[in-house]
Design goal:
Length: 179
């Protein structure tokens, strides 16, 4: 036998011996274990769970105290300005009509979500212009459902009034002189 032929023969016999050794056991568990090990090293893991994991609920954050301040002002009857609004959570500034010395129906609000914190010179456009001088009430409301849109009606009072550090409604009356 030539040297290259003997090398091929030795390599073939070695390969055959390895195959016989791997498959030669009479114990079926050994074959399953060898097959499982080979599969585990060559295949990506799979999951049999067809249901997706539910998203964790966002933790409810207790809003901090809110406040509002505004001066008596002259107006064109369409826009009003609050001097300062501090929100303990994102929200909106509303304007309420006067109802016998208390806040009445909402007559306007700023449609842009204000982030938590202090805001100066917040402008509110009224939904219907004031036609005569009167008292109005500035009242911040919090975006309770987190959707970035103001929603507060008698049927659906979702984004309710913000509270002060004393748990009172943050509200201030202002005398408006219509020019």
């Amino acid at each position: 036998m030539s040297q290259p032929s003997s090398r091929r023969l030795i390599a073939a016999l070695t390969a055959l011996a390895l195959v016989v050794a791997a498959c030669g056991s009479d114990d079926p568990d050994d074959t399953v274990a060898a097959t499982t090990e080979a599969t585990a090293t060559t295949e990506a893991p799979t999951t049999t769970d067809t249901e997706a994991e539910p998203e964790p609920e966002p933790a409810e954050v207790e809003p901090g105290p809110s406040s509002v301040s505004a001066s008596d002002q002259s107006s064109d009857g369409v826009t009003l300005v609050a001097d300062s609004v501090t929100l303990g959570a994102p929200g909106f500034l509303t304007v309420h009509a006067d109802a016998d010395g208390a806040p009445g129906p909402i007559i306007g609000f700023n449609p842009t979500l204000l982030p938590a914190g202090e805001h100066n010179d917040v402008v509110v456009e009224l939904s219907e212009p004031l036609t005569e001088s009167s008292v109005i009430w500035f009242m911040p409301h919090l975006d309770a459902d987190g959707d970035g849109a103001y929603l507060f009606t008698a049927d659906e009072p979702v984004d309710g009034p913000a509270l002060t550090a004393d748990d009172d409604v943050a509200v201030v009356p202002v005398s408006v002189t219509v020019e």
